[in-house]
């Protein structure tokens, strides 16, 4: 699991490293940062020897990193053109010291330093320099960026993007591309066509830990390949938990919690999953949720649909035990007693996909939520029907996982869609604080928040091929099945595992089909392959090692 920090958390980390108990000299961290960029980017640019490199250095410490980069590039045989956007006095002592060293190395042949002062001639020179170089280093702004890019930075960034679009110039961003908000992934110019956009980098070398804006869209589109270098930060600062923590899920996190099946297990061991959902228009949603659960290892699966929907479901998924409930084409309050009674034998209950938005169904839902005791997964129409019902839900929140996509989340929470998109981690945390549920905010990327710790877990996987009706229904069934999987320590852990497996299965489909036309059912069918891959990468526990090894 990788930490995902905000700019403020980075500042605190820097301060603690330099001026707190660790007392690392500031120039050392800057030195390590600059050196990290040169080392990590070397392969991406096919070696530095003989390259012409423009280094754009802003007036903060991001610019200071640029001075270090220039010195190391000279040692590796590149010619550097350093544009200094600050004045000597404006720099921090460490950046000034690195600039001084670089000035000592300046010459006409290999190391030109230009104190950039905008004029027609200067713009023209910069454009020509960019056009004739192979690499540009964006050390203009890092975590200190806020608002919208101002002149002259805005024009420089436009120029970099324009020249890079011709395909001859590689763009390497230092820490984060200029114009990307480190906290939210929002970018300069979003929603304002007149304002300058951010730098679009081929690669970003980021320092210490990941910044949230590198993973959240649209910032992620600007970052290219991201490499994180610890730059020698003390380990407790890199791995310690934060109050406002956010973390990126990795494969190793999931293989750690997905305990292998015990060899003497039986169907009862793997959970009795119930899916109570669907309506006559949307029988497919119920079937997709069922498939998601079965492919994720549900021991037994009960599917309960409205009576008139049942004929469309019976026999479609042979493994599911299907029955119609009530008499109509949607659930009503009168159906609740039967489900509540049955739930005594269920380990988990999922509701919502294709359920319809009838007022009757809202009454049904609330009855079932109030009178069952197993974990509940609520998705789609169940969430639409529960919009604004915070006071009703919160007391049951400890056993509820909600899985809205952004529009459902907006309806449910009452937050405007634009505000959610501006800072989805903050919106998700705020919601969980109030509603007390485990939240899976689906999208690109998906964010999971724990009601116990309020930590957010961001899943980087998945692809645009998954933007297809029914993909969320599969996830609903998966979340339910994983919630009762052996070894899951909390609903949040199960939700993280399900989301990660779902996206990894989507990525397998993407490898086969590309971005168009693979089906939600195919994603479900790829889940066992993902789980097998995880199991293969894990050393066998002692009891499962072969007793006899053939020679
Ligand atoms: N500290 C450390 O130990 C280490 C830090 N490291 C490095 O430091 C970086 C953070 O440095 P930082 O805090 O100096 O901020 P930085 O990103 O350079 O920008 C600040 C300048 O930007 C300006 N500015 C802001 N918005 C603007 C806009 N819209 N348009 C135009 N200008 C704008 C702002 O001006 P202001 O708005 O305040 O007038 C201010 O002058 C970090 O990303 C990493 O690379 C590494 O060396 C490792 C060790
Ligand atoms: N561009 C994308 N990148 C990654 N994941 C995506 C992308 N588009 C969709 N997904 C995933 O696909 C699923 C879509 O769910 P949802 O919108 O609820 O679909 P439906 O309601 O039609 O079943 C979510 O898990 C979402 O994270
Ligand atoms: K930068």
UniProtKB/TrEMBL annotation:
InterPro entries with a match to the protein in the record: CARKD (IPR000631), Nnr (IPR030677), Ribokinase-like (IPR029056), YjeF_N_dom (IPR004443), YjeF_N_dom_sf (IPR036652)
Record's catalysed reaction(s): (6R)-NADHX = (6S)-NADHX; (6S)-NADPHX + ADP = AMP + phosphate + NADPH + H(+); (6R)-NADPHX = (6S)-NADPHX; (6S)-NADHX + ADP = AMP + phosphate + NADH + H(+)
Keyword Hydrolase: no
Cofactor: K(+); Mg(2+)
Signal peptide: none
Keywords carried by this UniProt record: ATP-binding, Isomerase, Lyase, Metal-binding, Multifunctional enzyme, NAD, NADP, Nucleotide-binding, Potassium
Entries under Pfam families matching the protein: Carb_kinase, YjeF_N
Cofactor binding, note field: Binds 1 potassium ion per subunit.
Gene3D superfamilies: 3.40.1190.20, YjeF N-terminal domain
UniProt binding sites for AMP: 442-446, 472
Domain of life per record: Bacteria
Documented EC number(s): 4.2.1.136, 5.1.99.6
YjeF C-terminal domain boundaries: 250-534
Nucleotide-binding keyword on record: yes
Function statement: Catalyzes the dehydration of the S-form of NAD(P)HX at the expense of ADP, which is converted to AMP. Together with NAD(P)HX epimerase, which catalyzes the epimerization of the S- and R-forms, the enzyme allows the repair of both epimers of NAD(P)HX, a damaged form of NAD(P)H that is a result of enzymatic or heat-dependent hydration. Catalyzes the epimerization of the S- and R-forms of NAD(P)HX, a damaged form of NAD(P)H that is a result of enzymatic or heat-dependent hydration. This is a prerequisite for the S-specific NAD(P)H-hydrate dehydratase to allow the repair of both epimers of NAD(P)HX.
HAMAP family given in the database record: NADHX_dehydratase, NADHX_epimerase
Name of the molecule in the record: Bifunctional NAD(P)H-hydrate repair enzyme
């Amino acid at each position: 699991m990788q930490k995902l920090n905000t700019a403020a958390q980075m500042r605190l980390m820097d301060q603690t490293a330099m001026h707190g108990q660790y007392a690392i000299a500031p120039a050392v961290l800057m030195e390590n940062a600059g050196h990290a960029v040169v080392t990590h980017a070397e392969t991406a640019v096919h070696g530095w020897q003989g390259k012409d490199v423009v280094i754009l250095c802003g007036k903060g410490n991001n610019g200071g990193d640029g001075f270090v980069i220039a010195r190391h590039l000279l040692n590796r045989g590149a010619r550097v053109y350093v544009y200094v956007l600050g004045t000597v006095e404006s720099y921090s002592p460490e950046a000034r010291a690195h600039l001084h060293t670089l000035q000592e190395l300046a010459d006409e042949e290999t190391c030109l330093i230009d104190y950039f002062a905008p004029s027609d001639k200067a713009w023209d020179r910069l454009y020509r320099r960019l056009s004739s170089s192979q690499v540009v280093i964006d050390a203009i702004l890092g975590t200190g960026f806020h608002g919208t890019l101002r002149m002259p930075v805005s024009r420089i960034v436009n120029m970099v993007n324009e020249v890079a679009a011709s395909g001859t110039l590689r763009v390497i961003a230092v820490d984060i591309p200029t114009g990307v908000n480190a906290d939210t992934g929002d970018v300069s110019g979003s929603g304002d066509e007149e304002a300058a956009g951010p730098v679009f980098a081929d690669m970003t070398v980021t320092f210490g830990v990941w910044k949230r804006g590198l993973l959240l869209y649209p910032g992620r589109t600007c970052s290219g390949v991201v490499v994180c270098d610890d730059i020698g930060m003390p380990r407790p600062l890199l791995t310690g938990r934060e109050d406002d923590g956010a973390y990126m899920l990795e494969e190793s996190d999931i293989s750690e919690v997905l305990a292998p099946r015990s060899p003497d297990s039986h169907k009862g061991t793997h959970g009795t999953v119930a899916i109570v959902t669907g309506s006559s228009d949307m029988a497919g949603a119920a079937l997709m949720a069922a498939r998601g659960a079965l492919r994720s290892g549900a021991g037994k699966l009960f599917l309960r649909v409205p009576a008139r929907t049942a004929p469309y479901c019976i026999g479609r998924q042979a493994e599911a035990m299907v029955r119609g409930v009530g008499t109509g084409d949607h659930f009503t309050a009168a159906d609740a007693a039967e489900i509540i009674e049955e739930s005594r034998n269920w380990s988990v209950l999922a509701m919502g996909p294709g359920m319809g938005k009838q007022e009757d169904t809202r009454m049904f839902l609330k009855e079932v939520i109030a009178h069952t005791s197993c974990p509940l997964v609520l998705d789609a129409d169940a969430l639409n029907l529960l919009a604004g019902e915070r006071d009703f839900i919160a007391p049951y929140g400890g056993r509820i996982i909600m899985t809205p996509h952004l529009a459902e989340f907006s309806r449910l929470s009452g937050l405007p869609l634009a505000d959610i998109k501006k800072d989805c981690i903050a919106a998700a945390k705020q919601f969980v604080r109030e509603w007390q549920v485990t939240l899976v905010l689906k999208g690109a990327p998906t964010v999971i928040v724990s009601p116990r710790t309020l930590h957010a877990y961001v899943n980087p996987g998945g692809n645009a091929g998954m933007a297809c009706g029914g993909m969320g229904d599969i996830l609903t069934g998966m979340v339910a099945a994983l919630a009762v999987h052996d070894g899951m320590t909390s609903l949040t852990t199960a939700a993280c595992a399900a989301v990660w497996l779902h996206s990894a299965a989507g990525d397998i489909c993407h490898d086969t089909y590309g971005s168009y036309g693979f089906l939600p059912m195919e994603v479900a069918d790829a889940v066992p392959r993902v789980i097998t891959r995880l199991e293969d990468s894990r050393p066998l526990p002692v009891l499962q090692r072969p007793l006899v090894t053939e020679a």
